[in-house]
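question for whoever is on the cluster today: can someone run the full assembly for these? two chains, 230 residues total. i dont have access anymore since they changed the login thing
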Amino acid sequence: MKLLNVRLGPDESRIVAELRRDGVQISRLVRDALHSAYRARQATGATRRRPSEMMAAIYSELPDPPGLPRRRVDLGDRQSMRRAILRAMKRQQP
Amino acid sequence: MDTGPLVALCDPRDGLNPRALHDLDRAFRDPLILCAPVLTEACFLLPHAVQRRRLQRMLDQLSVRAYQADDEGRLWGEVFHWLDQYQEHRPDWTDGYLAVLSGKDRRLRVWTYDREFRTKWRRPDGTTIPLFARRA
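^ ran it for u. tokens below:
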């Protein structure tokens, strides 16, 4: 993980002190703000792509290799997923 | 995010993929959060290298955030307690983890296609777990 240092003015320092007194985690606040700003930037960028369009591009750039077997699992059924995970774990055993 | 939607998004051949994409477009107004148990299950169900590259690319491009507990050890204790309460239904670790997280932050909604989150599982305090996706 990288460390980012930010200089704060007197008003900002006062705000940080008050927030900390109220139990607010400043690091979490900063991370939330970064993610919000990034998402907003993506939403207003030139491409204005919906997430499903981003996924379509990912599928196109990373297609399935020929002959990839289909998974035998119903993703809406936890029992089916459990059986599939157990099968996968057994395949990994030496 | 629960395992079902995550895997469905990473496999365009899966029957739930269209629904997951539709729900993703609706979900994107809110932050998407992923916890380690779900990611672990997803990797078992996405064993091929290209499927995992899709998964990583998706997490990067959609800014999916890793859930970070303030005290993971304490969280484990809460999950074990929840699992004990529901033991007759044989829940998985991931079920308990998501149910407990739902109780920690009232803003969280679980995106799952597992009916048990609607019909069986509750938060540790007994309240309904808010769900994101529409009913099956």
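summary bc i know u wont read the tokens: The first helix of chain B runs from residue 3 to 10. Helices of chain B lie at 3-10, 17-27, 36-45, 49-61, 72-85, 93-104, 116-119.
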